[in-house]
Design a protein that fits this description.
By secondary structure, the protein is an all-alpha fold. It has two domains: about 100 residues; about 50 residues. Helices cover about 75% and strands about 0% of the residues. Helix 2 runs antiparallel to helix 3. The longest helix is centred in the middle third of the chain and has 91 residues. The N and C termini lie far apart (about 115 Å).
Amino acid sequence: MGGHVNFVYDLGDEENPDELKHFLFLESVRISQEKQELADEKRRFEQEKKRLIREKDLFEKQWKIVERELRKIGNDRDNIARDKAYIEREKANLKRMQQQQKMQASNVVVKSGTFFAGVVGSAGLRKRYRDLLKIYHPDNGNGDSATLLAINKEYEVIKKQFGIN
């Protein structure tokens, strides 16, 4: 509050009524100033209170958003863990199936003459050979080198029959 000077005036001194009026006037002014300062301080306090209430509301809204997002992240983490476990199981199943297929493929005995059965002409022979390479090449997932050797042997024999070098 403002800097004011307190002084005691002896009201029993009736000799100087002008001094008393002046004192009362000054006191009235001082009190009015203090009243105005208190009103200003009250107004600033109310504004600060409103600002703090708005900040509190904003903080609570932000906090709710953070909590909701954290729950989503937790759910996503759980879903990812479930998906990862599922993928690992599927990978193991796929690997097991591939091993079984390779074992079955290696147990298959290919008769000579079965790969190019029904081929007529050199163009048909080359086309069938390329198609068989696409299927049985070892770089292919289902490919097998033993089967490819049998295809190559049969291809060489049939090429000679068709007179192709």
